[in-house]
Amino acid sequence: METNDQVSFEEAMDKLETIVSRLENGDVPLETAIELFQEGMKLSQLCGSKLELVERKIELLIETEQGVERKPFAPVNEDRGE
């Protein structure tokens, strides 16, 4: 697998979808299934990290009476403590 810096979010998701399809199909040898699972976990963590980075960069722009105000992005789950 390429290093994390070389794989885009979209490429990682495509690879992850392919791995999931192969594992769901069930016709891969056990050793291959374990390798695919491990690669899938790495890709999943990579996607999660990239999403976290993007969330930190996003700011919501809120219009107030005084003008436009910037507010840091807060995922919906944070409001519920999840």
From TrEMBL:
It is found in: Cytoplasm. GO terms for biological process: DNA catabolic process. Keywords: Cytoplasm, Exonuclease, Hydrolase, Nuclease. InterPro entries: Exonuc_VII_S, Exonuc_VII_ssu_sf. GO terms for molecular function: exodeoxyribonuclease VII activity. Its EC number is 3.1.11.6. It catalyses: Exonucleolytic cleavage in either 5'- to 3'- or 3'- to 5'-direction to yield nucleoside 5'-phosphates. HAMAP family: Exonuc_7_S. Bidirectionally degrades single-stranded DNA into large acid-insoluble oligonucleotides, which are then degraded further into small acid-soluble oligonucleotides. PANTHER family: EXODEOXYRIBONUCLEASE 7 SMALL SUBUNIT. This is Exodeoxyribonuclease 7 small subunit. It comes from Paenibacillus curdlanolyticus YK9.
